UniProtKB/TrEMBL annotation:
KW Lipoprotein (keyword) present: no
Keyword Protein transport: no
Pfam families tied to this protein: BPD_transp_2 (PF02653)
GO MF entry, a single one: branched-chain amino acid transmembrane transporter activity
Membrane topology: Multi-pass membrane protein
Protein's cellular compartments: Cell membrane
Superkingdom to which the source organism belongs: Bacteria
InterPro entries to which the protein is assigned, alphabetical: ABC_transp_permease, LivM-like
Annotated transmembrane regions: 7-24, 30-49, 56-76, 82-104, 111-127, 161-179, 209-234, 246-271, 283-306
Organism annotation: Peribacillus simplex
Protein name stated in the entry: ABC transporter permease
Keywords: Cell membrane, Membrane, Transmembrane, Transmembrane helix
């Protein structure tokens, strides 16, 4: 019986994740990991659209900001209950994503990327300049922490860590179900050849719009969790710098893979925290790193690991076939 199976590995990682607050007993590490999990949720949204459907959206940071500001405005200015505001933030982000997607998805390839880049910058400008609603450059302060659920409260670093971890696990499960469903296979068919998918009867516009809205949902959810975790937000969370970070997490981890967003986010966030003394040279470090990964490992770290594992299986299978062939000849 093999011990190192994929199932046992997932169980071990889950146990480690839930036991980490007891192992570390350090609020700084909990804060860093909680923030990583939030970014990972947003990256899963990009992965669904870009990795599995083949459309690179550069407005994802804008939708992240919409989710964050929606929760902030609903709780701070409208006085809404946190959980209702969280649901409202996701709905608002999806509605705006639907309206933008109806127009954006009429373009393809680099035109789509350029269009969404412009949309993301417009969202940033609206947040920055509409001071009467968003407070502009002053930012939105006083955002409440997640509301209690019965006797369970979220006023400690450990409790917020567990809350975000549960949301991350839910997102990964949803992604897994989508990818391994007929809808997911339809997304992949569109990515491989949209014209061919159309000829076999797939409604490409409907499926692309579904993927786009789902990606904005993940971005809005991540943004709302970020706002409740940091308790203060400014226009910078919708900037192109944040978009670059999210895209970098995806490309390093592995685009079009289920584990890639989490691997890339955890690796680069932890690396960034440990290299804060080189913050001024951040782009000089990550730029060449990203370029090398794209050249030698187009599907990132996770994709490279899967490819290595596949080659090992093929090698073992070829050796078994060779042995069977030799035995057959000897017999």
């Amino acid at each position: 019986m093999k011990i190192l199976t994929k199932r046992n590995g997932l169980i071990a990682l889950t146990i480690f994740a839930f036991s980490f607050p007891y192992i570390a007993q350090n609020d700084y590490y909990l804060h860093m990991l909680t923030l990583s999990f939030i970014w990972a949720i947003a990256v899963y949204g990009i992965n669904l659209l870009s990795g599995y459907t083949g459309y690179l959206s550069l407005a994802h940071a804008g939708f992240f900001a919409i989710g964050a500001y929606s929760l902030g405005l609903l709780t701070v200015k409208a006085g809404m209950n946190f959980w209702m505001a969280l649901a409202g933030a996701c709905v608002i982000t999806c509605v705006i994503g639907l309206l933008i997607g109806l127009i954006a998805l009429r373009t393809k390839e680099h035109f789509f990327a350029i269009y969404t880049l412009c949309v993301g910058y417009i969202i940033y400008l609206v947040i920055d300049k509409w001071e009467g609603l968003t407070e502009g450059v002053r930012g939105l302060i006083g955002i409440p922490a997640p509301g209690s659920i019965g006797p369970i409260t979220f006023d400690t670093a450990a409790s917020q860590y567990y809350l975000v971890l549960l949301f991350l696990i839910a997102v990964i499960v949803i992604m897994y179900r989508i990818i391994h469903s007929l809808t997911g296979r339809t997304f992949i068919a569109i990515r491989n050849s949209e014209d061919l998918a159309r000829t076999i009867g797939i409604s490409t516009m409907k499926n692309k719009l579904t993927a786009f809205v789902l990606s904005t949902f993940f971005a809005g959810l991540a943004g709302a969790l970020y706002a409740s975790f940091i308790r203060f937000i400014g226009p910078d969370i919708g900037s192109t710098a944040i978009m670059f970070d999210l895209l970098m997490y995806l490309l390093v981890g592995g685009i079009g893979t289920l584990s890639g967003p989490l691997v890339g986010t955890l690796l680069l966030v932890i690396l960034s925290q440990n290299l804060q003394f080189l913050q001024e040279y951040r782009m000089l470090i990550f730029g060449p790193l990203l370029t090398l990964i794209i050249i030698f490992y187009p599907r990132g770290i996770a994709g490279a690991a899967f490819e290595w594992q596949r080659k090992r299986k093929d090698k073992k299978l070829s050796m078994v076939r060779a042995d069977m062939h030799i035995k057959a000849e000897e017999g």
